[in-house]
TrEMBL record:
GO terms for molecular function: cadmium ion transmembrane transporter activity; manganese ion transmembrane transporter activity. One of its GO terms (cellular component) is plasma membrane. InterPro entries: NRAMP_fam (IPR001046). This is Divalent metal cation transporter. It is a multi-pass membrane protein. It is found in: Membrane. Signal peptide: none annotated. It comes from Octactis speculum. GO terms for biological process: iron ion transmembrane transport.
Length: 116
């Protein structure tokens, strides 16, 4: 249950939702009921694709981690410090480092933008 809550927390980040709201508010909208209805629709639809992509990537990480850990001796005591031991697949460490770099960069950029 905690894993699922962690994935949801990693996907739905308040500062990204705030940034999206601020970027939508800066768009000029003609005060016409039809245009406003269409703009409201696209404002609701636009964040869906990035959230689905992020959720899919997070679930892939959880599934790969679970398949690598499940059924191995000592897997009941696996913690955050032991996670690197399970990245011994070819390119696993490079992929993990790239993911960390990308997530850090994304977080830094969106937090800075939403704070301005």
């Amino acid at each position: 249950a905690f894993d699922i809550l962690g994935v949801i927390g990693a996907v739905v980040m308040p500062h990204n939702l705030y940034l999206h709201t601020a970027s939508v508010m800066s768009r000029p909208v003609v005060r016409n009921p039809e245009v406003i209805r269409k703009a409201a629709f696209w404002t609701a639809v636009e964040p869906v694709a990035p959230i689905l992509v992020s959720f899919t990537i997070n679930m892939a990480v959880v599934v790969i981690a679970a398949t690598e850990v499940y059924g191995k001796s000592g897997s009941d005591n696996v913690g955050l410090t032991d996670f690197a031991d399970y990245l011994n697949i070819p390119g696993g460490a490079t992929l993990f480092a790239t993911a960390l770099l990308a997530s850090g960069q994304s977080s830094a950029v969106t937090t800075t933008y939403s704070g301005q």
